């Protein structure tokens, strides 16, 4: 099998797997208890928080563990329900993940206004369009770091600067970016950042929300005093430890990994171009390493996915969360892929385990189906 759907999820790395084992069985103490048996759990929690903070340029008390990207995004968007009444507007983009878009739908039902910024053909949000959209009612801006369908990396530093110049809180959904491109939250100037471990070779069902010190955000879950009384619930120590090992490793290997992934992209694209197939590559020059979104003229992306599956190749039509929905995705519509190409869209996302021969084989399989 060739797995090339790493934007949907990644394989747990061996280092993370090994680091989790003691906390799944022997070290089962509750980190909140004062007796000595709980000390290893407490120490693991402290150390994981420190490691994760160091990987994104934060301080440990700015890291709040959650169950993943969806929860972190819900937390931020729904916290806008507690904004002062004069600030009852949220600005986001048209190409956000459904964790943001559907959270926005909920807050709209509860009276918050939401503005959706358009993107250009490369999927980039223009800082000037943010500036123009801000009003005296705006309280929160949420723009994703990198898009999960087309891989475009947004100008986050510039967007955060615009938000701050207008006294607003700036959130970024960095689920696709953390562990893949360098991120320094303080240098970027973001206030809130969502992340999810299973996108960077960590375990599923665990993630974190970075909350900059001094930024006021309503607590997500009420109960015990975990996560500085902002997200109650007994901590999932094994997964938190696995997440920190995976992020540390990915951060250490980031530059050599990027070089490899860019090479795989180039091999794939060159081979498809040489074949004479008529296709568009979606996204921007500034995109996530290994992320390739292609739209083939007069093709059926859904059919292509299933034919490749029969050849043992896993790719995607758009985002995994959208795979039941066979219509053209909101992202492909927003970047205005021409109609004759839009339905022939597939996403190939290379990851740590992929090799150059995988890129060659995927290109050959696509040619076999479409030529
Ligand atoms: N945000 C983005 C950009 C994503 O790509 C995803 C997952 O595909 C999510 C949020 C949801 O993350 P999780 O699967 O951890 O809930």
From TrEMBL:
SUPFAM superfamilies, sorted: PLP-dependent transferases (SSF53383)
Superkingdom of source: Bacteria
Cofactor or coenzyme needed: pyridoxal 5'-phosphate
GO MF terms held by the record: transaminase activity
EC number: 2.8.1.7
Pfam families xref list: Aminotran_5
Name under which the protein is recorded: cysteine desulfurase
């Amino acid at each position: 099998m060739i797995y090339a759907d790493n934007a949907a999820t990644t394989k747990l790395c061996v280092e993370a797997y090994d680091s989790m084992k003691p906390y799944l069985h022997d070290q089962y103490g509750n980190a909140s208890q004062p007796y000595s048996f709980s000390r290893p759990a407490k120490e693991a929690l402290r150390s994981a928080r420190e490691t994760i903070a160091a990987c994104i340029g934060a301080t440990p008390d700015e890291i709040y563990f959650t169950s993943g990207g969806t929860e972190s995004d819900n937390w931020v968007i729904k916290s806008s329900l507690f904004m002062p009444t004069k600030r009852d507007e949220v600005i986001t983009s048209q190409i956000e993940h459904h964790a943001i878009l559907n959270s926005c739908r909920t807050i709209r039902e509860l009276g918050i206004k939401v503005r959706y910024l358009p993107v250009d053909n490369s999927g980039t949000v223009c800082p000037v369009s943010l500036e123009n959209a801000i009003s005296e009612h705006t309280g929160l801006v949420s723009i994703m770091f990198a898009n999960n369908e087309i891989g475009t990396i947004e100008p986050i530093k510039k967007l955060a600067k615009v938000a701050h110049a207008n006294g607003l809180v700036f959130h970024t959904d960095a689920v696709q970016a953390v562990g893949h491109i360098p991120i320094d939250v303080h240098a970027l100037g973001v206030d809130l950042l969502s992340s999810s471990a299973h996108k960077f070779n960590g375990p599923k069902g665990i993630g974190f929300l970075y909350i900059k010190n001094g930024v006021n955000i309503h607590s997500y879950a009420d109960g015990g005093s975990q996560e500085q009384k902002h997200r109650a619930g007994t901590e999932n120590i094994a997964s938190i430890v696995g997440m920190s090992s995976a992020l540390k490793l990915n951060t250490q290997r980031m530059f050599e990994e990027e070089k490899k992934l860019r090479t795989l992209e180039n091999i794939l694209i060159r081979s498809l171009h040489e074949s004479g197939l008529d296709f568009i590559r979606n996204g921007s020059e500034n995109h996530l390493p290994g992320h390739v979104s292609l739209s083939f003229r007069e093709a059926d992306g859904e059919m292509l996915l299933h034919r490749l599956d029969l050849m043992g190749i896993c790719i995607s039509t758009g985002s995994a969360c959208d795979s039941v929905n066979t219509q053209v995705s909101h992202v492909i519509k927003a970047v205005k892929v021409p109609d004759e190409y839009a339905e022939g869209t597939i996403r190939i996302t290379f990851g740590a385990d992929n090799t150059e021969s995988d890129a060659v084989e995927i290109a050959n399989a696509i040619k076999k189906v479409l030529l």
